[in-house]
Amino acid sequence: MKNHRLFTSESVTEGHPDKVCDLIADTLLDKALEDDPKSRIACEVCATTGVVMVMGEFTTETYIDIPNLVRKVVKEIGYTDARYGFDGETCAVLTAIDEQSKDISAGVTTALERRGGGSDRYDETGAGDQGMMFGFACNETPSLMPLPIVLAHALTKRLSEARKNGEIKGLRPDGKAQVTVAYDGFVPVYVDTVVVSAQHDENVTQSALEKEITEKVIRAVIPAKFLNKETKYFVNPSGRFVIGGPHGDTGLTGRKIIVDTYGGMCPHGGGSFSGKDPTKVDRSACYYARYVCKNIVAAGIADRVQLQVAYAIGKAAPVSLCIDTFGTSEYSEGEIVSALGKVFDFRPAAIIEQLGLDRPVYAETTNYGHFGKDKLSWERTDRAEKLKAAIGK
Questions:
Q1: pLDDT tens digit string along 185-235?
Q2: Exposed, middle or buried by CB within 10 Å (0-12, 13-18, 19+), for 153?
């Protein structure tokens, strides 16, 4: 067997304790934006046995019934039975909410450029924090996402579907999947290892669960061309997974940042997404960087591209852009950056307007990745032709 490079990505179901918290945070954000598009929200959620705590800074003109929304989300995920140690009917909901810091608000509301006399309307809004954000795209899948994370998300989504429609009996909401892909250079060759861990009722046997998940989840979503005699399967390798969700492990927003992005295929700036309004560039600029990278690949400028963008708090324009095409482009990275400047505007106000980020779209992003879903605005490739013209292709 040829010496292939192995790369692994993971995904989690919507019932994973961290994802429970992410979805609560994004649902509360959506509720604020639905009535007040200028809401400034930084929502943090933690969950453990019988308790959900909502914390953060909320500056909004609307009223949010936090306890009722939290309970609704928890029940819709599937935590409806007190035997799980966590359910939407009986869990306590605690809140610790304040307004956004006036110091941060001042820098976001009036950017450094506007304070310096600038008149461009996109110079009005400053970045909500400093930091670096990454975008990525590659041509190894139709969605221009890396194959390992695409397959991992497909597994967890299918696992949740099989639980909800009763196709696999005895499943509970928590679960994980992990996929290892063998690469020849940048070309995926086969799936080397699949790991699926699914929470289940006490009376479910390991043998029955392993058989059903292998046939109804793994083989149902991973194309047969990627499975061969080298592929290894591990279903609930711990042997038992009855205690799960926030009862088994405390959940917290923002702990699944690699699951949310590219499965570790490119660097991460460290900022999480869920619960943050779009003035927080660690969310909106990551979405925009994905949008830019996807258009680069769709334009045929590179087969694989990574973009880093960095900001200073209170300043509208980014402080740096850095492109890496991994040797897959005929153009220099300087030429590509120059072309980007003619087609894309990385200032927060421009990003929010171009991608429509002041709308309640965020609960759609929470589970199974923030990238690779066609209906999201940052997945469009509508600027590919303009990029071609800008670079002279």
A1: 999 999 999 999 999 999 999 999 999 999 999 999 999 999 999 899 999
A2: buried
Counting Cβ atoms within 10 Å, is residue 237 exposed (0-12), middle (13-18) or buried (19+)? Answer: exposed
Place of tokens 């997974």: 241
Q: How far apart are CA 32 and CA 38, in angstroms?
A: 9
DSSP classification of residue 140: T
Q: What is the pTM of this model?
A: 0.95
Length of the chain: 393
- Quick one: average pLDDT of 176-186? 97
DSSP helix/strand/coil, 84? helix
Separation between Cα atoms, residue 345 and residue 354, nearest integer Å:
9
Q: For residue 28, which amino acid is it?
A: L
The strand pair at 232-235 and 5-12 is best described as unpaired
Report whether 352 contacts 358 (CB < 8 A). Answer: yes
- Tens-place pLDDT, residues 60-82: 999 999 999 999 999 999 999 98
| Alpha carbon distances (Å) from 22 to 13, 187, 192, 362, 376 | 12, 33, 30, 10, 18
Is the Cβ–Cβ distance between 325 and 305 less than 8 Å?
yes
Rounded Cα distance between 152 and 176, Å, is: 9
Confidence of residue 99 (pLDDT cuts 50, 70, 90): confident
Confidence bin at 110 (pLDDT 50/70/90): confident
What residues have CB less than 8 Å from 141, skipping those under 6 apart? 147, 150, 372
Cα-to-chain-centroid distance, residue 296: 21
